[in-house]
């Protein structure tokens, strides 16, 4: 039989674990590059850009559009990788806390 009080306790436990996992996302960092390493972007698990490095060889006005494209590519790649790591971290913190309920997906909460 379904025990509502037990389920409510589990939900509170999941909520606490998810908060802990979300707090830890700031410590996950991913660095991605584009243009064979000419542009590097570092992003944390909260999908915030932490740093951006542009090789000195790119810093002239004629290459402004190319630099912009490389920056976008590096940041997007870092954001994607950070998102995957964040998803894994959230899953690791909440795994086994709730029964397998069809349609209940906690992976995207807080991301």
UniProtKB/TrEMBL annotation:
The keyword Transferase does not apply. Transmembrane segments: none annotated. GO terms for molecular function: DNA binding. Keywords: Coiled coil, Cytoplasm, DNA-binding. Pfam families: YbaB_DNA_bd (PF02575). It is found in: Cytoplasm, Nucleoid. Gene3D superfamilies: Nucleoid-associated protein YbaB-like domain. One of its GO terms (cellular component) is cytosol. Its main location: cytoplasm. SUPFAM superfamilies: YbaB-like. Belongs to the YbaB/EbfC family. Binds to DNA and alters its conformation. May be involved in regulation of gene expression, nucleoid organization and DNA protection. Homodimer. This is Nucleoid-associated protein AAE02nite_44310.
